[in-house]
Amino acid sequence: MKLMSFEWNGIVKYGVVHEKGDRVWDVLALAEANDQDLPRSIAEGIQESGNFYATLGKLVQWGAENRKEEYMIPLEDVKWLAPIPRPSKNIMCVGKNYRDHAIEMGSEADIPKQMIVFTKAPTTVIGHQETIEAHAKLTNELDYEGELAVVIGKRGRNITEAEALDYVFGYTIVNDVTARDLQERHKQYFLGKSLDSFCPMGPWIVHHSEIKNPNTLGIQTRVNGEIRQDSNTEHFIFPLEEIISTLSQGMTLEPGDIIATGTPSGVGKGFKPPRFLNSGDEIEVYVEGVGKLNNSVN
Ligand code: MG
Fold first, then answer.
1. Cα-to-centroid distance, 92 and ligand 1 (Å)
2. Does pTM surpass 0.90?
3. What is the pLDDT of residue 187?
């Protein structure tokens, strides 16, 4: 199932996308009709209960079997929010995790031998169809990075690679928007990666049971319809198991933590001359089996 957060009639809700893809089950309403308590957000559900996903499945099944159309909301009537609109800590990100991207950012010497890790502030997060701020007074080098992101489902430390995928709740898509000039000027990546609206996320979380192998997913980014990035997560330098294991050595990963897995070649800075983003540009990031994340620059 695909879990999404949204606003409808001014109320923040979450739900399960109907299999036809045009409506969303209002799971809070389904729960109320069944005299059940449900966590108030996807993040709470992941954090509080190991049965969260199964509970949602039963509610949706009840709704479908009993034809409870009144508990479905057309997607055209909702304002999309990121599935976890305000993560409780920074989004963890892997840098230069595709060989070709490492080379386009410099040279063969930039291919990392050890994982590069940085974070983005929680205030960067916006949802599907929300607007990326150009921050024109701060940057002339606004860039995109389409990425597969993973949502942690279980608390753990010193996780081995063999058990790493057991700690995954599901997958989503992140655009690791970057101000390249700030990224370089301030040495650490943090500021250039953390301006408000620099982490479009969504459109939803796909449960891990629907992704057989996260290390073999096609990934594409289009700007104004033109394909700029076109790769596959099979080209990860550090596969997902190694990412989770490495991050968890001595540092506890918690349910609801979000990890962006890095971007392939084809970012704006990789072109000669560079092709940075401008006001009005429309960016679409596609990840096979997950979906499409669309945002435009204001
Ligand atoms: Mg990135």
1. 10
2. yes
3. 86
36 CA → ligand 1 middle, Å: 40
Whether residues 119 and 260 fall in one domain: yes
For 44-89, the pLDDT digits (tens) are 999 987 899 999 999 999 999 999 999 999 999 999 999 999 999 9
CB-based contacts of 183-186 (< 8 A; 24+ apart in sequence): none
Pair (132, 48) in one structural domain:
no
Could you tell me the residue range of the domain that residue 264 belongs to?
91-297
Tracing tokens 């039963």 back to the chain, one arrives at 58
| Of 167, 200, 216, 198, nearest in space to 293 by CA | 200
Distance CA 285, CA 75 (A): 19
Beta bridge partners of 260: 93, 149
**Ligand 1 is an ion; residues with CB less than 5 A from it:** 145, 176, 263
What mean pLDDT value characterizes the chain? 97
